[in-house]
Amino acid sequence: MPMWKCKVCGFVFEGPEPPEKCPKCGAPKDQFVKLSEEEEKLILRARLTNSLHMEAYTLLQRLLEIAEKGIQDNLDPPCVKIFTEEKEFALTMMQKIKAELEAHMKKGKW
Ligand SMILES: [Zn+2]
Known about the structure:
By secondary structure, this protein is mainly alpha-helical. It contains two helices and three strands, in the order βββαα.
């Protein structure tokens, strides 16, 4: 299926023809450019990995919430230490994922 990219906002549309208007920014049809086969391949190849990163990000957000509750509960120092390490781990991994996804976007793997 051909892919078309909005020059205004970057929205990628899949279909035989570009849409009448961009679903994201409302730009007219003539603002869409057809992606090359190479560009399409990059997007298709990265799709699974991108969605796995987003799923992991959601889990890390949950871990962050759990760790913050544990820190607040403050049962004893060893527990607080574990929750603090979990919080740092979650925050670091979330930043790593965001940096990687940003790199994917810059390379057209999105
Ligand atoms: Zn657009």
